[in-house]
Amino acid sequence: METKKHCFDFRQYRTQQELPEQERLLIGKAAEACGSAYAPYSGFRVGAAALLDDGEILCASNQESEVFPSGMCAERSLLYYVQANRPGRTIRTMAIASAPSPRECTPCGACRQVIADAEKRQQAPIRIVMSGAGRAIVIEEAKLLLPFTFELE
Fold first, then answer.
1. Which residues are catalytic?
2. Against a cut of 0.85, is the pTM above it?
């Protein structure tokens, strides 16, 4: 038997004002996207924004359904939209925001897997900015959020 350890570095910002301007803008877009969320059951609205390789920013929000669990998280809505409508484009950074935002909004397990899949497919890291309560956590690549991803290969 061998014991191994998994750890990684991340940045935690006490205020979003400490972030670079581009990331503050992306958080703002993600927060705006919360306004288009359909969350009558949970009351938890989530927005996500992606900065693409050419500077374009795309946004999406969570969409619940009364046929639970047929809803979709903001992160997966956004990633599937990018894949379907901007094939071949690279996502540089993804920001996530929520309303209410009692703390930084982190992706669920399913979203972590799909973000890791997108990162693998594009063969480039996706920087993740998780915001909430006026703070932010930043990781340099999505695969750090889910160290033991499912892979068919």
1. 75
2. yes
